[in-house]
Amino acid sequence: MIDINEKYCPLFNSDNRYCFMSGARGSGKSFVVTLYLVNRLLEGDNILFTRNTMTQAHISIIPVFVEMIELLGLSSEFTIKNKEIVCKRNGSIIYFRGLRTSSSNETANLKSLNVNIFVCEEAMDIESYDVYNTINLSVRDKKKKNKVILLFNPGNPDHWIFNSFYKNGQIKDADYIHTTFYDNWDNLSDSFIQQALSLKETDREMFEHLFLGEWFVNKNTLIYKNFRCGSLEEFSDDNLDQFETLFTADFGWVDKTALTKIHLDRDNKRIYVKELIYESYLTNDMLVDRIQNLVEVGSVSDYTRNNKITTNYQRNTRVIKDGDLIVCDSASPMVINYLRVEGKMNAVPVKKPKVLDRLRFIQGFEIIYHPDSHNFKNEISDYRFNENTEIISNKSHKNDHLLDSFSYGICFFYRL
After folding, report:
1. Cα–Cα distance for residue pair 327/245, rounded to 1 Å
2. Contact 53/99 with Cβ under 8 angstroms?
3. Strand, helix or coil for residue 243
4. In which element (H, E) is residue 35 found?
5. Rounded Cα–Cα distance for residues 67 and 167 (Å)
6. DSSP secondary structure code for residue 392 in this structure
7. Cystine design at 373: which of 165, 275, 276, 326 (Cβ 3.0–4.6 Å)?
8. What is the DSSP string of 201-239?
9. Quick check: 374 and 169 in contact, CB under 8 A?
10. For residues 96 and 108, what is the distance between their CA atoms, to the nearest angstrom?
11. Quick check: 152 and 22 in contact, CB under 8 A?
12. What's the pLDDT score for residue 150?
């Protein structure tokens, strides 16, 4: 019997169609997937196992499966070929194929294979969502459970995997499994562990990418370099109640209207940020309604993307109470007045210094964002100057609504 980390249980037990398995070096995810696929062959499933290119499967991949089959004592159950493994018991097949050859895209040929499990290893190498989705849509067996598995070590968040399956939170009908070398510690050599821990001391950012499997953000041209995702403990009332607090708003129409809650730790020059509203096409009446209906759910933001209030309350307390200060973009005096008169809110305009002066000042702080603040993370992770300039890139300038909002609070705190 082979023991596996409990994090991998959804792969074996879940009925969801998709399984996204991210991780880092030494996490052991390939071993577990190999175990899973050998078992699925025995159950009669037909499998397509792909990489972007695969010219010598009999050298690079099939030996891993042969080793697993031997470990399980099942050598007599399978026939091993150069590009397939066949289960003698039921005739099920695992095909090992590349999505591309040196001269062509092979997806048109691959989608004709009659499979109910599609595995894409090293999925970050796949050039586009369309290449992946061509095969994904062909996995539609009526009699068997269909499964699509992506294995990858996270890279640049500009990638289609991040944009399709992570950027806006988890998709439905999917399991997300993330493991690191810590989850596979007992199976790793001392030298490997020492290499990882040494990098942790010398280059924390690269350690988090290589050995913790974090999405890697190239910070060379980033405007804000000192930012991170905080823990729920850091965002607990016990921690944040000691700091100055206010709410901030940036108004838009097609562009997002953004509302944040920020806490300022002056002594340590830290800013804690939690996004509360991030939505287009809000009329003044709708904005007042959104703000008045924001409620606390423990330490997790509860205002969902479908604009309904969740019912899984731990306590039913308004986020913005009577008299709480909302610092707003001074370019929208009519909206501010509407919040004050119709919403009975303490909304005030902020005096804004020049953009570069504001940015340079905030660069001196550590910015910590709430784990639920996905849109804030997306904005700050790609908020950049053009190369060798202090001009904000066009892409960043179109995606900075929460960043503008929280910056108004800093301007107010320090009377910039």
Report:
1. 11
2. yes
3. coil
4. helix 29-42
5. 37
6. B
7. 275
8. HH-HHHHHHHTT-PPPP--TTBS--SEEEPPTTTTSHHH
9. yes
10. 15
11. yes
12. 97
Task: Take residue 17 and report the two structure tokens written for it.
Answer: 């169609």
H-type helices in 111-249, by residue range? 129-136, 160-165, 190-202, 204-210, 237-240
Distance CA 362, CA 270 (A): 10
* Residue 323 to residue 127: CA distance in whole angstroms: 52
Type of residue found at 377: K
Residue among 57, 2, 77 at smallest CA distance from 33? 2
Tokens for 7, please give them.
Answer: 């994090």
Dist CA 398 CA 263 (whole Å): 26
Please give the span between the terminal C-alpha atoms of the chain, in angstroms, as a whole number.
65
Residue-by-residue pLDDT tens, the chain, 416 positions: 788 899 999 999 999 999 999 998 999 999 999 999 999 999 999 999 999 887 776 777 889 999 999 999 999 999 999 899 999 999 999 999 988 765 566 776 787 788 999 999 999 988 889 989 999 999 999 999 999 999 999 988 878 999 899 988 889 999 999 999 999 999 999 999 999 999 999 988 788 888 999 887 777 778 998 998 888 889 999 999 999 999 999 999 999 999 999 999 999 999 999 999 999 999 999 999 999 999 865 434 343 334 434 334 344 678 999 999 999 999 999 999 999 999 999 999 998 888 889 899 999 999 999 988 888 988 898 888 887 777 787 767 778 999 999 999 999 999 87
Residue with tokens 């398995």: 21
How do strand 325-328 and strand 346-349 relate by DSSP bridges?
parallel
Give dist(CA 107, CA 135) in Å, integer: 7
Predicted pLDDT of residue 109 = 75
- In 3D space, the residue among 333, 331, 330, 353 whose CA is nearest the CA of residue 410 turns out to be 353
Task: Report yes or no on whether pTM surpasses 0.90.
Answer: no
The half-sphere exposure of 180 on its side-chain side, counting CA atoms within 13 A, is 13
Name the E strands within 2-66. 18-23, 47-53
Given CA atoms 311, 317, 322, 324 in this order, what sign does their dihedral have? negative
Buried b / exposed e over 98-127, threshold 16 CB at 10 Å, is bbbeeeeebbeebbebebbbbbbbbbbebe
- Phi, then psi, of 44 in degrees rounded to 5: 95, 10
Strand-pair partners of 270: 265, 366
Token pair listed for 322: 């009577």
Torsion sign across C-alpha atoms 204, 206, 209, 212: negative
